[in-house]
Amino acid sequence: MKTLGNILWFIFGGFETAVCWFFLGVLWCITIVGIPLGKQCFKLASLTIFPFKKDVVDGGGAISLVANIFWVIFTGLPMAITNALVGLVLCITIIGIPFGKQYFKLAALSFAPFGKEIVRTD
At residue 93, what are phi and psi to the nearest 5 degrees? Predict the structure, then answer.
């Protein structure tokens, strides 16, 4: 079932969103100061392309906390709110609940990506 979810996600916007995250990561990595932000964009791209069978695990420390504060101020809050709202809209229908859960996962990661890892759950 999760494979079918990944296929549908990929067809209906997962690929385009992942490509956008990838190019945003490349743009951030052009500057030396933006490399940590670019790495987080690549992390979001890897989760966005096939979010089913993947989970987000915490593992950060004090440096991740400071980096997440800057991320929230400049980027994270609007992204997290958007992903959460899309997840809520999808959860209104029974068919959209699995996709809504994935958007909630993306909202949590887009709010504070530093210090988090994406692991496969088979």
Answer: -95, 155
- Total domains present in the chain: 1
Domain that holds residue 54: 2-120
Q: Do residues 79 and 111 make contact, with C-beta atoms less than 8 angstroms apart?
A: yes
What pTM, to 2 d.p., does this model score?
0.83
Give the pLDDT of the chain (122 residues) as one tens digit per residue.
788 988 888 888 888 888 988 998 999 899 888 898 889 889 989 988 999 988 888 887 788 888 888 888 878 888 889 989 999 998 998 888 998 999 999 898 889 889 888 888 87
Phi-psi map region of 112: left, alpha, beta (phi>0 left; psi -120 to 50 alpha): beta
* Best CA proximity match to 64, nearest among 19, 20, 109, 104: 109
